[in-house]
């Protein structure tokens, strides 16, 4: 997260909103990349579970992760799923370790039946508790993240805004899914999610965020100023974020490779 810096700059969107710009200044630092790759790997398969998962397959740890757990590096839609997962995990780490939200993600990636198909539901959810008892200042942060690391005609920020507008419908299902997954490992944490399952009786703050994670070259070409959030159902509490960096798809593939090779 030390590589992720707030530039202090913003892009004004078509409806007068402001999208803040962050930059990921990654570089070839083996120790940091190894730690990052290990953290990345845990989203798909806990290291303590890996021996039991591998033992009957006839595969090495590396081949098991590459062929069964991680999205494919070349065959579509594997690469786009890789990019999307990377963007979601980066954003989840950002809101947890930079912004201070609790961001549980157990099971989102490791329970996939098809490694190349993205997970359903809201991309990232963060929880903020003002006190031990429910408070009007408790906050639910609901995020849609869209990665753009290859040339595209699509406006990734607009896509994130549009999908974010659908999250009010998906929110209840996503909260229930997070809670159910947590019940398998930590009942106390699972029950914390319940704080946000009945806004009518227990009101809280709801913030949405639309995040575009872009390669520098894509960032320079994409018409981000044309993004329009005027129709967003929670537009008064919508945060727009752009994260950009150089050679992002190369970084994604390098992280997956290191995560597999160092398992």
Report on this structure.
The chain has a 6-stranded mixed beta sheet. The protein has 9 helices and 6 strands, in the order ββααααββαααβαβα. It is α/β, with parallel strands linked by helices. The protein has one domain (4-261). The radius of gyration is 19 Å and the shape is globular.
> Strand pairing plus helix content: what structural class?
alpha/beta
In percent, how much strand structure appears in the residues?
15-25%
The total domain count is: 1
Number of strands: 6
**Order of neighbouring strands in the sheet with most strands:** 1-2-6-5-4-3
* Percentage of residues assigned to helices: 25-40%
Query: Which spans have pLDDT < 50 for at least 5 consecutive residues?
Result: none
Radius of gyration: 19 Å
Q: Helix count, per DSSP?
A: 9
- The average pLDDT score comes to 96
Report the end-to-end length measured between terminal Cα atoms: 22 Å
Largest sheet: 6 strands, mixed
The oligomeric state of the chains shown is single chain
In one word, what is the shape?
globular
Helix-strand pattern, N to C?
EEHHHHEEHHHEHEH
Strand-helix topology:
Layout: E1 4-12, E2 18-24, H1 30-42, H2 50-54, H3 61-69, H4 78-98, E3 124-128, E4 139-148, H5 156-164, H6 167-183, H7 187-193, E5 205-215, H8 216-221, E6 238-245, H9 248-261
Parallel strand pairs: 2-6, 4-5, 5-6
Antiparallel strand pairs: 1-2, 3-4
Helix pairs in contact: 1-9, 3-9, 6-7
Short description:
The protein has 263 residues and is an alpha/beta fold. The protein has helices at residues 30-42, 50-54, 61-69, 78-98, 156-164, 167-183, 187-193, 216-221, 248-261; strands spanning 4-12, 18-24, 124-128, 139-148, 205-215, 238-245.
């Amino acid at each position: 997260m030390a590589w992720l810096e707030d530039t202090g700059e913003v892009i004004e969107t078509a409806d007068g909103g402001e999208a803040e710009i962050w930059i990921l200044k990654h570089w070839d630092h083996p120790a940091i990349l190894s730690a990052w790759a290990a953290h990345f790997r845990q989203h798909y398969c806990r290291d303590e579970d890996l021996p039991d998962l591998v033992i009957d397959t006839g595969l090495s740890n590396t081949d098991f992760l590459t062929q069964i757990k991680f999205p494919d590096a070349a065959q579509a839609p594997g690469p786009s799923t890789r990019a999307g997962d990377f963007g979601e995990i980066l954003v989840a780490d950002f809101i947890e370790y930079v912004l201070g939200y609790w961001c549980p993600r157990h099971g989102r990636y490791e329970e996939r039946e098809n490694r190349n198909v993205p997970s359903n539901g809201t991309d990232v959810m963060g929880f903020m508790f003002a006190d031990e008892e429910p408070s009007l200042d408790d906050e639910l942060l609901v995020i849609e993240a869209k990665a753009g690391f290859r040339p595209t005609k699509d406006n990734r920020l607009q896509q994130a805004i549009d999908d974010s507008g659908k999250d009010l419908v998906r929110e209840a299902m996503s909260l229930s899914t997070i809670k159910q997954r947590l019940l398998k490992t930590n009942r106390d944490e699972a029950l914390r999610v319940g704080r946000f399952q009945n806004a009518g009786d227990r009101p809280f703050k709801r913030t949405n965020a639309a995040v575009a994670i872009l390669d520098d070259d894509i960032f320079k070409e994409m018409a981000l100023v044309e993004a329009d959030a005027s129709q967003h159902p929670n537009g008064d509490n919508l945060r727009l974020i752009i994260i950009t960096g150089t050679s992002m798809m190369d970084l994604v593939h390098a992280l997956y490779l290191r995560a597999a090779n160092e398992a």
